[in-house]
Amino acid sequence: MYGTYDIPISLQSEGISLSIERRDDAVVYRRQLGDEKAEKLLLGGGSGSIVINPVEPLNLPRDLTPYLYLDFQSTVALGPKMSSTVFVTFPVEIGVFLQERGEVEILDIFTLARQKYTLYGDPRNGLLCRYWSTPVGTTAPSAGRLHEGVMELKLANGTGSWVEVNKAVFSGYGMKLFYNDDLVGMRAEMEVTGATTAQTDCRDMPLKKHMMKSLELYTARKLVVLFPKFAMTDGI
Question: Which of 103, 187, 191, 199 is the most exposed place for a label (fewest CB within 10 A)?
């Protein structure tokens, strides 16, 4: 389903039905996923192309938070001054864009992944985050690319003691997603600065060669991003 298409299009995959057609001087967009339906009438457009790609998983059911909380199903222990790489998964949302005359318009965002939210930090005033429970290992897991992606996470322990890592929180404004016919992927880093503190960041680099880079929602919305990194100060 991911890719760039000319209008008209009609696609069906894993319970998703999506179509875009011209009607007189307008373009009609329709999408159905289970009982959820979306329809949009575009006036004065339709000469461009349609781009469908994975986007930052922080938009549904509405724009609640820019933060993603990955809860590791296994604890990772890192020795003093040690660096290592692990693989985790993350939820995927799917964005549909109209690309026309150098401009990008967001038509729709939907997901097959379960939507759940949690607090990072104190229960009374913690930070609201999109929650995702993930296995963690030293090899990349298999993942259905319409449901979830694979993150290569480089862990670096900058302290002089052993540390245990059970979670990672990322800012959506720094995410760089890539995809191909088999995989949605992302690379990230986590620098442990104390027993309960760390800094996370995402890298602008695909997991494999020849992967396509996704259109980024904050770019499409013309937002200026000043702080793509995230400082974890309430536990790792």
Answer: 103
